[in-house]
Amino acid sequence: QLQLVESGGGLVQPGGSLRLSCTTSGFNLDYYAIGWFRQAPGKEREGVSCISSSGGNTNYADSVKGRFTISRDNAKNTVYLQMNSLKPEDTAVYYCAPVRAWGSYCSLAANNYNNWGQGTQVTVSS
C-alpha cells in the first residue's frame, strides 16, 4: 500500500528556516517523481516544487524560487524540502505526492497526482 508521511513543519518567525521530510513506503521511490504542494485556508492546493525520479530535474513555483530547495534520498525513501527565508505567505499545510514517471518528468500540477499524505502545518509568524 502506497503511503507518504510528511513531517518537519512547525511555527517559525519570518526569515527562518524549516526542512520538511516526505517519508514513503509501499512503493519503489526510484520510479516516481515527487511533488510538494501547499494549501492555505480558503485557497486551492498549489504546486511548490517537484523532483524527477532520478533527481536530475527540479522545478519550483515562482513564489519560492531561490528560497526553497527540493532533494531526495532514494536509499532512505525520503524526499526533502528545505525552506529558507520564510515569509508569512508561506503559511499553509504542506503535502507531498508521488507520480510514477520516467526520465526528467516533474509536474507542479496537483491534478497529475492521486495519492497524498496527511500534510504538515507550516506557520510563519512573529
Molecular structure report:
The protein is mainly β and 126 residues long. Helices cover 0% and strands 47% of the residues. The chain contains no helices and 10 strands. A 6-stranded mixed sheet has the order 2-10-9-4-5-6, with no helix packed on it. A 4-stranded antiparallel sheet has the order 1-3-8-7, with no helix packed on it. It starts with a strand and ends with a strand. The model has no long low-confidence stretch (mean pLDDT 96).
Strand % is over 45%
Helix content: under 10%
Q: Give the ordered list of helices and strands.
A: EEEEEEEEEE
Give the biggest sheet: 6 strands, mixed
Classify the secondary structure makeup into a structural class. mainly beta
Count of helical stretches:
0
- Can you tell me the residue ranges where pLDDT is under 50 for at least 5 consecutive residues? none
Q: In whole angstroms, how far apart are the ends?
A: 40 Å
Q: Total number of β-strand segments?
A: 10
Instruction: Report mean pLDDT, rounded to a whole number.
Output: 96
In order across it, which strands form the biggest sheet? 2-10-9-4-5-6
Integer-rounded radius of gyration: 13 Å
Shape: globular
